[in-house]
Write a structure and sequence with these properties.
This protein is α+β, with helices and mostly antiparallel strands. The protein is built from three helices and six strands. It has helices spanning about 15-35, 35-60, 105-110, and strands at about 5-15, 65-70, 75-80, 115-120, 125-130, 140-145. It has a six-stranded mixed beta sheet, covered by helices on one side. α1 packs antiparallel against α2 and α2 (about 35-60) runs antiparallel to α3.
Length: about 150
């Protein structure tokens, strides 16, 4: 997000199942406090999905998972960072009986845009929502920056 930030929050979580609940609640509360209560539910679901993916596929025992939420005049962004840059997320088709495999489809359906940024150590998976009346230019596309 290349814009001056109005609000920003970042918190590290231990790679435990309860951290997903804590991050989801914190994100929804902050987004509401920042003046976007209509986005709070979608942000909560996206944070929950990205945190769950980080916990299941990107965590290491002794490393934390970071959730960063930022808001500028034009966009709201959620990032979940984990230490496993070698394991990039991709949506996959889930069968009717599959218990897992639909999280990134939910993220793509709720956010205007999502993607992955590979970092020096690990990766950040992000989702963004436009806060203007103009539609996002590349609506619901995935991008990977290395």
């Amino acid at each position: 997000m290349n814009q001056p930030l109005l609000f920003e929050d970042s918190l590290d979580y231990t790679p435990l199942a309860h951290s997903v609940t804590l991050a989801r609640r914190r994100a929804a509360r902050l987004v509401g406090e920042w003046g976007y209560p209509d986005r709070a539910g979608d942000v909560a679901v996206v944070v929950s999905e990205l945190m769950s993916n980080a916990l299941l596929h990107g965590s290491l025992h002794d490393r934390l998972i970071r959730v960063r939420i930022s808001c500028g005049a034009a966009a709201l962004r959620v990032e979940v960072s984990d230490p496993r840059g070698d394991r990039l997320p991709w949506p996959r088709p889930a069968q009717d009986a599959d218990q897992f495999g639909r999280g990134l489809l939910l993220v793509a359906g709720l956010a205007d845009r999502w993607g992955v940024e590979v970092c020096g150590v690990g990766k950040s998976v992000y989702a963004e929502w436009a806060l203007t009346l103009a539609p996002a230019a590349d609506d619901r596309l995935v991008s990977v920056k290395k």
